[in-house]
Specification:
alpha+beta, binds fe (ii) ion, about 375 residues, about 25% helix, Double-stranded beta-helix, NE0471 N-terminal domain-like, 2 domains, 8 helices
């Protein structure tokens, strides 16, 4: 609640029950949400901000509804504008959003908490629980799915929509021992994130096991955020390299030449990690001075040896009807070598659509 306000020359000092904060007049005027300045239906600003007086003064201000809101009268508006406690406190500088709902993990930390039944997620509450797991751990396994591509589509459509890419939308892939040679062996795929060559790497990947008559072929998950946390603690210098040097990735073939670059640990303007991006298979050639070259190789060695160590890897052979879904901006994925037949269906979903679904369901 708001217990006191004080009009200053260019600002309004607001005293909440828990703390106090100074809001600039221009910011408050710009965020006027009355009929004249705000389109309620579309949640869009109508104000022509550039035309406002940046030195605007408050004519009068009062607390209303026992501290639930304040009303401010501005010199350029006829009616006072209401600002709710919720609006002001949710925009407080003290109210920095934290990613504390994330549980960073090593293999030992995971038991059954990442599994959820397909039928369960068909209900609203079940879907919310599923999303919570996916957000918290960076991946989940949906059990008892029908072994058909429709199951992938069903889950994808709950979150957002299927992303189209060079691989198509929904896809199926079968590795068959009769395919190439007599004995068809698939080599291990080391942990990586997909599409380091894309400026907007897919946010989620879904992989449904439709058929498994094979030996091996473990799905591997590695929490890239956990590795980042450890490297940050152990070596400021290597963390700095991994979070500042742009690593270029490319995809050449199938009639396209895609290329993008970003650091392996992608930080936002508050220096918080929001994306891990690493794919040694797709790394493009790029150079820097000798000293930095040595440091860079030291840094990726540290990162990749951790990602390839058993301690950081959750390994599981997907059974028919199990669908693995993971956050490609956080969790690296890999696959153990196998022999035999394996049929997988899957798709990508954009990161922004996953984020949107999380917000709509109050996950963060
Ligand atoms: Fe991949």
């Amino acid at each position: 609640m708001i217990r006191k306000i004080k009009i200053l020359s260019d600002d309004l000092h607001v005293y909440f029950n828990e703390n106090d904060e100074i809001f600039s007049n221009i910011w408050l005027r710009d965020h006027a949400r009355d009929e004249e300045n705000w389109d309620k239906r579309s949640s869009q600003r109508k104000t022509f901000t550039a035309a406002l007086d940046f030195k605007i003064k408050i004519k009068s201000a009062e607390i209303f509804d026992d501290g639930k809101s304040i009303k401010i009268l501005w010199p350029d508006l006829q009616k006072p504008v209401t600002y709710s406690y919720e609006f002001l406190s949710s925009n407080s500088l003290n109210n920095k959003k934290k990613i504390s709902n994330l549980k960073l993990w090593k293999d030992i930390d995971l038991k059954d908490q990442i599994y959820i039944d397909f039928e369960t997620i068909q209900s609203n509450q079940g879907y919310k629980d599923f999303l919570k797991k996916l957000y918290k751990y960076g991946f989940a396994v949906v059990t008892n799915c029908k072994t058909e591509i429709g199951s992938v589509e069903n889950i994808a459509k709950k979150i957002g929509y299927v992303r189209n890419s060079i691989f198509g939308g929904l896809w199926s892939f079968e590795s068959n021992e009769d395919k190439a040679d007599s004995a068809y062996t698939q080599e291990e795929l080391r942990p990586h994130t997909d599409a380091t060559y894309s400026n907007d790497a897919p946010g989620l990947q879904l992989l449904l096991c439709c058929k498994y008559k094979a030996k091996g072929g473990h799905s591997i998950m590695v929490d890239g955020f956990k590795i980042a946390e450890i490297i940050k603690k152990e070596s400021k210098e290597l963390f700095e390299i991994l979070s500042t040097i742009n690593v270029k990735g490319n995809y050449i073939g199938d009639g396209v030449f895609l290329e993008a670059e970003r650091p392996i640990f992608n930080l936002n303007s508050n220096k918080e990690l929001f994306q891990v991006s690493f794919n040694n298979y797709d790394r493009a050639p790029f150079r820097f001075e000798k000293e930095l070259t040595t440091k860079f190789y030291e840094a990726i060695r540290k990162f990749d040896l951790m990602a390839n160590s058993r301690e950081f890897q959750w390994r599981h052979i997907l059974k028919p009807g199990e669908l693995l879904i993971f956050n490609n901006w956080r969790v690296l994925h890999g696959r153990g070598s196998f022999e035999g037949t394996r049929k997988i269906s899957g798709c990508y979903i954009n990161k922004e659509d996953f984020d949107s679904s999380c917000r709509m369901n109050d996950i963060y």
